[in-house]
C-alpha cells in the first residue's frame, strides 16, 4: 500500500524547502492538511493537486 499522507519534513524534502518554510505553508488557507492530535499530516493526492494548481503562480 502506498502512503496516503506525509509529514511536514517529507513535504519539505519533496518541495526542496526548509522545514520552517513547509510549516509556514501548512498555515496558508486552502493548503491541504490533516491534523491528528498535534501532528500535521498532508494527504498525498490533495498535495499533488494543490501543487498542480499553484505551479507557476506567485
UniProtKB/TrEMBL annotation:
It holds the Pfam family HTH_17. Residues 6-54 form the Helix-turn-helix domain. GO terms for molecular function: DNA binding. This is Helix-turn-helix domain-containing protein.
